[in-house]
TrEMBL record:
Protein name listed in UniProt: Glutamine--fructose-6-phosphate aminotransferase [isomerizing]
GO CC terms: cytosol
Location of the active site: K364 (for fru-6p isomerization activity)
Keyword Cytoplasm: yes
Gene: glmS
Major localisation: cytoplasm
Amino acid sequence: ETIEKGGYDHFMIKEIFEQPRSIADSMRGRLRADDGHLQLGGLSNYLDKLAESDRIVIVGCGTSWHAGLVAEYIFEELARVNVEVEYASEFRYRNPVINEKDVVIAISQSGETADTLAAIELAKSKGATIFGVCNVVGSSIARATHAGAYTHAGPEIGVASTKAFTAQVTVLTLIAIATAKRKGTISEETYRQLLIELETIPAKVEKVFENADKIKEIAFIFTYARNFIYLGRGLNFPVALEGALKLKEISYIHAEGYPAAEMKHGPIALIDEDMPVVFLATKDGSYEKIVSNIQEVKARKGRVIGIVTEGDTLIPGMIDFVIEVPKVHELLTPLVSVIPLQLLSYYIAVMRGRNVDQPRNLAKSVTVE
Ligand code: G6P
């Protein structure tokens, strides 16, 4: 086991640091920015189906559901298609309105999650076309779908999912770009630009790791926090959910992720000088709005940790702790903004002496309903 951990203390931290490679592996052979090549072998016969569909329903559980939420924004923006993201466990027990025109994308690291598998069978029985985005080759979900694209993140051992999430987001982004290209809803310029920017992501994730010591110091300060709030808007909203989930899973600290604008409808009542609030505050379309949300929290003495874009001079002057991430194309933000949150939860859990790789009550793959 020591050898498998490759010199790291835990699988989770090894897997976090593997992300530049696992993201690159998810794109390998599929994307070439210099000549505009983008092809997902497993889906090439189904691209017309994706392009013609009026609605895409994404199903998954846990972290995979969060990857689906990220994909919703990207598909809608680029491919101008209506996307719904559902917890597999809710979808399967309703009487969902679904028919042969619909495309269902099932996301699963293990490919064995019982609820996701049951959701697929239900959608299939109603005539929908099912695609899988799985990590484990030959898994039950991979076999149950009509077609799919593997994430190629390599084996993920830590129960809290890290590299599988970024690989899922990468592959879903490729599918969204390919669909948009086929539909003609993406300009040649945006298409080229996204491919170029995708190729730079592994190096940019590597750059986030330069902040690891700083994140460790922040973790030390908040080791014994009892609650945490994570806030983000747009594509960073699912990242806030994922950051809160990571913290809950391995440190057992209560954490909530919220869309920043919804804060005033509830969570703001929780804010006092003891409440750490993590803001996803990268420079994007909602930047100005996030700035005012930060002011609202500071006015109530909350302690703000901000994930900001490199070179930002405004937000660092307003908050308590700053973690910079490199500038990326807005649609690719989650691939870098989630990394500090994974590290923060890891260091807090280690400092609290938790069993990081096998947290209590959780399983890597939930094969029961
Ligand atoms: C479990 C794992 C999570 C995972 C979820 C979905 O709860 O602990 O890390 O996100 O199942 O698993 P899947 O394999 O379907 O992605």
